[in-house]
Design goal:
about 675 residues, homotrimer, eight-stranded parallel sheet, eleven-stranded mixed sheet, alpha/beta, 25 strands
Chain lengths: ~675, ~675, ~675
């Protein structure tokens, strides 16, 4: 791509009887510097109104008309919402829930991924779309379905699940052992006996639950590949993407990432509810997670130009926030700013979802003005397209780990706070001006200097060895409480934890105490810790038996008062830190400062970073681009940051307006 | 009617084997000045114990015996609870829920309104009842079923729904357009494809949801008419009523009101939980709503002489409160005070619901004494029967508007507070001593001087024109935030809102901000506003672009600080006010004072109305009756009210006892 | 038994492929002074892996190997969790829920108690077990199933329910009258028409709901007897037990107690969340309830040596607490301390449930050390085995009463607090150093001096006469608000309450006021009451009309201010006290002090009992054993207790360590 993609989802099929509105839309898009729209995602009923009767001409006309005016199209496949005739004629395309009841027609995201008929039907329409649009220069990207998610428990899926298990375990004895089915006498005699988890049936076997989730991902990925194959068969050669969702635990995105060429995602933060910088950090973590899936620029596929109607409160974005949020995507590695949606629908459940063009149909609205101004700014920043983020720190945030940990009973069914634990470390690093990758257990870690693994409960095969080698080779590894407890089928390790790494960390976890809501313990620093304050911790406290590790902080309360809570262990070339309790944010902020000082990791910025300011960078071979963003609703003095380089966006290097962004370019 | 109806629901079928108890009941009724009972509502199993075997003689005996002692009967049709033999033999009479699962036998309000068999069965019993009691002088009113409500999703209802839609839209294209089905590709090819909304199927089409609710009302009204036709066929010519419920959103009561001669309703306020005057206001609003359905006197059909067992807490009524609550009904236009129930049942789910005669079976109970004293008082007030309320102010509280607004996603799924918004305006008018009608959008408004439309989200066809003409003709119209947004199928208006009335109000709504729970903005009065204090607002804030309107208050916070929040627009002969935000009660109190002063609307009372006192009036051609009620649990000095006229109930015009009522009569 | 049973549940079937682990377990058990394990409860799939193929040899080997080392076995029947092949082949063994949907395979406690096939299958395995282990000297007790509970609504159960009802009522007219079915026209024409309660059908008939619960108990007891018969058929003559659960309302344990020889129960208190002494009192009440079921020593069948993984928070037990909790069982009449579980499972839903041997497999853990030390202590206390508790006070806590009261609508659907009311009286008595029996309405009360009946809403047949005779004969009886309201089919008594005892208590309840959450009334003592402070009361206040009774306290607020709230009536030889309101704990503490002083009931201890100390006693013909337990996490001076006798466990009679226990033996 040559420029930042700007635009978003567009649903002209809702307005085909109002050509003057479609014309008006085109004028407005041009005015707003829009260069890209996404078409087709919810158009199946318009593209194939009756079985086998295809009507693609209206869409072709629109694609061409847009292209004439410099607007490219991202072509969506319509599998996310199926026409009524299909479920009426072929009920097997409808999902079956965990209680084994088949859905009625309605909503979206509701098809069975296994159904041969549904696969045949999507093949039909995808092939037609590919034939018609494969060679169309206006179509630049193929967008597979929409926000894949959900699961189906129909007989076809049950059968597919059994095949998948057979493939994984070969014999039923292996499976019984891996799932520990002797507990409560749930031993299986054959693969045919296996059924998916259900609250009306089996929920007690964590291995079954975990493998079911893996299967759902596998089946979804398989369906994705089926969609892509259909497009390729039809002759479309454009790159592919799927749009992912915020902190979504329904699928393992690693597997979807392998299916497509480009990662894209949909971001809908709840702004102005807490301090905006906190919301921005949480959203930034997701950007970094999406970027790290392929370590390539990604696309911001959906975001809302105004308020989001399906959240609890439809909060308006304050002036400037739209720009800040959009630039944040770029700052973290996106090559696009795309909205849901260009024009607001008149009816149905998202009719109040914000849009570039609202029901008033005017271009003097506050939102349209901001969209236009932003479009203008982005149009001058084509040089950053394709630039990369080079992070020397990484956080491990692993969805399989999350599945297993949250499904387990204990040590805290009232809340484990995994996401929060990840965010705490993330925030601490960002406050020090460090770029961060957010990766799964499967990724390579050898190129980082600092890797952090909060609550790494489930050790996937080989992770012990990977961590050991990383530390041996001089890496600095931080792990927290409740780590290294189970193997990849959620069987507890025998012989002490963290499994296989007791020598690396120089300690053993002997017990874990759960704290009631509101209950607090204290962390007291040792003299050698580099810290001087005391901190609070909550929720979970590991009790540690220390070998070679050096205690940095110890507990201040309870019967384990005085025992080590945070430790450091020099192991061969590197260091292994262990944080034994769910400490407050301030601890993480100050603790990572000590670590990064010690190991000499430098902030992106020479000077001091004021509160509410986010700093990130992107790199080309020639330049480094610094993004300085202000998430405070007032002007902030940034002269203390001692920025050097050339301002290519924004006003200056001294002051940053409310929700303002400045981009500074430096030669490498 | 010649006197105020006093008495209530009576279930002698529970005691047929205890004739001494039935005799005792009669003595007690006479003692308590009871002149009316309701019979038959839950007697089907006693009236037709086996299919086609009717036993009406026991009820005839009771009706006659009561009549001999001056006690009239309201005859209920028994459709509200069906005998067991019927559901066993004809399962189609049982309702099917939205998940398409048929109920088992049990509870009440559980029959399919569409089932031809159920209709035939109710026709059978109703005809028999009519034949037996049509000419009985003891039977004065026909009470159709009991608290109609609920819905059925059975195949018969699905088919009836499709027919109803076909009748409404003629072509499927019209329906598709009205429901905006292109969204998510839900386009229908024929009416046969349509199914009722379900959480397991379609919920995203607001037009479908809204029409389904309309259909449920239509089908219930059709069933009501079927019941009435059966009675008429059998020769009963007494007037008819249905008993309605507090703030019930399951049906559009406008449509039921058209089916019957007299409105009646069942009131069960939660007393003593907050200040009693607030509970009384809320209940008073309902009385006014019920009266305004036909602009005729209504009947209080059910109320509890003691504590209500199905609420969270069975709170006893303090001495005097029973009288206050009963007189409130009269004060707002009722010609009756009726209880559920005369005698407490021994078993089943309402066995602890309060009654005139409780399980002790004694007449020296506190409750029986209060009931008797009240009966005595009412027996002296026959002259007010038939008198009317002439209100010059009206509030629009529209159930279709509520359906649509609450079903929509956004702008505040965490709570819109429609009911609360209506109550705020209602309270403010009542505090100024104004009688108020509470009407739907369908009613005529030309006769009022002041009409208030809080949150009139959905504009039914023609309402814009009605409002315009009202203001043109010198009327004063108040509308609030989130008004004029959608048409009658919940499609958003294009071209700006409030739809069709931007000139009348002299402004346009450009955006609506949702505030998080606990978030507050401020309303700052302009010098010309007549107000001097600042007020808080919450939940929703319209952003307004003002044309000819005069800003009265503006926002004090957020990026729209300083922009207009409340405005006034002189339009031809009248004035159109717009309240842009969900303001606190005090704002409404003081704002309406300014308006009524300005337009010269006078309180019913010359003097000052003390806190906790409610004032209302009823009128005949000759007299006006003022009802002054004290909702404080202590004596209040009311001399400041400067009451004139003759005291016909209560002690005097100077002091009002705790929970006391004084009625003053003045010649017109 | 000759010694205290020490050990717990053991699941070697999970480790049959790891013989070295089983050997290790044996070594550890010996080390920890374990003398008893429970086997077989979840072993069905290992014992009968395919239909009719029995494999009992592995278990026999383990039983024998344990026995060789002095460890006895409690043999569990495996009905609590059934193998997969059985539900696959015979779906009728799966339960059907109240919505008439059959469960899938999974979990435990999931079989139909009525199914002839399930009964045949359990007969098969039980007979085999009995044949193999009936004569094995290592097997000392037969443990029937595991924590019986739950219900099934399948057609077989419906039919059995109808038979049970026919047996109870003989004619349908009797049933209609008992259930008051005329209410809402639910009259039955025959027993065939009856179906179990369902939220999709009938819930309004309290008599039906109550009888359904009785039937579920009856059917469970019948199943228990079926299991026992099968064991006896197979030749096993060991005594039997079932393990009961904390405050379980699903079954009437009186009926299960009749089926077996020995009572046992599973205790999992939530420690360290509130003051430990309060948790201990609540748990102590359960111990006393379990002991009173047969007035014999019981067994503590399950308890957790560490943290319990299925509770909200897996809280570690502080050092010493395990010992305190274990000794509490003994102090209240247990002859065992048994754990769930000896070895932690590696997988499935209880993998983090605490165990004697945890995943580390080590014997130097904190938990293993405490278990060992405790085992050592217990091994020296064999003399207390078989000793009894002789209480002169009893509390009535009746599950049928609870079923009826909690199912009824009113007077406080937001909470009646029955359990709390029982605990308040219990705590007050315990604080005075009195041993207490906790009994149902069915038990004999003639041998007690003081009997307390909190909220005795439902009077089972004959209870009035029993209470009357108790008081006549010089007994002291305390009853509270909301007592004597309904008969055994939940029909309200006519003619005043408390039914049949108005002369004994010298008063009548006229009304009951429900107080909203947070609402408070006051109790003001009369001069003659022996009390001087005022107390708060909440939730429920009876209004009383006093005859011969002497008012002791009166209400301080509301319209019933000044009327009696607590009374005392001398009736023939005894006294009848009535507590009319839900008073705070302090009232109960001080009120019972007045009563026990008056009637001369002595504390177990001559001196003063410090806060946080529990005192209990057990008796043989020769000795009385006093258990003094400290539930404070610090040393407490107990010299004020003036203990005499010989210390047989613990340090001395002067000071008690944190969570410490001292046992003192005195000759009788």
């Amino acid at each position: 791509m040559r420029h930042i993609l700007y635009g978003g989802d567009y649903n002209p099929e809702q307005w085909l009887d109002r050509p003057e509105i479609l014309e008006q839309d085109l004028d407005y898009m041009i005015k707003a510097h829009i260069n890209t729209v996404t078409l087709g995602m919810f158009s199946w009923a318009a593209l194939e109104p009756e079985e086998g009767e295809y009507h693609l001409e209206w869409m072709e006309n629109i694609v061409n008309r847009l292209y004439e005016h410099g607007i490219s199209t991202i072509l969506g496949t319509p599998s996310g919402a199926r026409p009524k005739w299909m479920s009426d004629k072929y009920p097997e395309v409808l999902r079956v829930n965990e209680n084994r009841v088949r859905n009625l027609f309605g909503g979206r995201h509701n098809h069975c991924y296994t159904s041969p008929i549904y696969r045949e039907k999507i093949r039909g329409i995808n092939t037609k779309l590919a034939k018609r649009f494969g060679g169309n220069p206006g179509v630049v990207l193929l967008h597979i379905s929409n926000e894949y998610g959900g699961e189906c428990h129909c007989p076809l899926c049950q059968e597919a699940f059994r095949m998948w298990l057979k493939d994984r375990y070969t014999t039923i004895e292996n499976l019984n052992k891996a799932w520990w089915t002797t507990f409560w006498s749930h031993t299986y005699l054959s693969f045919d006996q296996i059924e998916s988890p259900s609250s009306m049936g089996e929920t007690a076997l964590h291995g079954l639950n975990l493998d079911w989730k893996r299967f759902v991902t596998a089946q979804t990925a398989d369906f994705t590949l089926h969609e892509i194959r259909s497009l390729r068969e039809g002759g479309a050669e454009q790159p592919t993407t799927v749009n992912l969702m915020y902190d979504y635990a329904g699928l393992n995105y690693d597997k979807l990432a392998e299916c497509v060429d480009i990662i894209s995602w949909d971001t809908y933060p709840v702004w102005h509810k807490k301090e905006d910088i906190l919301t921005a950090r949480d959203n930034g973590l997701q950007h970094d997670y999406m970027r790290s899936l392929k370590h390539q620029p990604f696309l911001l596929m959906e975001s809302c130009p105004s308020s989001t109607n399906w959240q609890g409160v439809s909060k308006l974005k304050r002036p400037g926030l739209l720009s800040a949020a959009s630039f944040q995507a770029l700052a973290h590695g996106s090559d696009s700013v795309l909205y849901f949606q260009i024009r607001q629908s008149r009816g149905a459940s998202e009719k109040f979802h914000g849009a570039v063009i609202d029901h008033s149909g005017r271009d003097d609205t506050r939102v349209f003005q901001e969209v236009t101004q932003l479009g203008d700014g982005l149009s001058r920043l084509s040089e950053i397209v394709g630039s990369k983020v080079n992070a020397s720190a990484a956080l491990i945030y692993d969805v399989e780990n999350r599945w297993a940990m949250e499904d387990s009973q204990g040590p805290r069914n009232d809340g484990l706070f995994y996401h929060e634990a990840v965010v705490k470390s993330y925030q601490a690093l960002r406050r020090q001006g460090l770029d961060v990758d957010v990766i799964s257990e499967q990724q390579d870690i050898s190129s980082y200097r600092l890797v952090i693994a909060p609550m790494l409960y489930l050790f996937r095969e080989g992770i012990e060895e990977k961590i050991r080698r990383f530390v041996e080779s001089g890496g600095h590894f931080v792990m927290t409480y409740w780590s290294g407890i189970v193997n990849s089928t959620d069987l507890c390790y025998l012989g002490g934890t963290p499994h296989g790494l007791q020598d690396v960390f120089g300690l053993e976890r002997t017990e874990t105490d759960g704290l009631y809501d509101g209950e607090v313990n204290r962390l007291i620093p040792s003299e050698n810790s580099g810290l001087s304050k005391e901190y609070e911790c909550r929720n979970l406290c590991d009790l540690l038996k220390v070998g070679t590790a050096e205690p940095l902080l110890h507990y201040g309360r309870e019967f384990y008062q005085g025992t080590p809570a945070v430790t450091k262990n020099r192991y061969k070339g590197g260091t292994a830190y262990y944080i034994g309790a769910d400490a407050e944010q301030q601890f993480y902020d100050e603790f990572y400062q000590v670590i990064t000082n010690e190991i000499g990791m430098k902030s992106l910025i020479a000077g001091k970073i004021p509160e509410d300011i986010e700093v990130t960078s992107r790199n080309t071979e020639k330049f480094r681009y610094y993004f300085i963003q202000n998430y405070k609703n007032e002007m902030v003095d940034i002269s203390c940051m001692n920025l050097t380089g050339e301002v290519i966006h924004g006003d200056n290097k001294e002051e940053l307006a409310a929700y303002g962004t400045v981009i500074v370019r430096e030669e490498v």
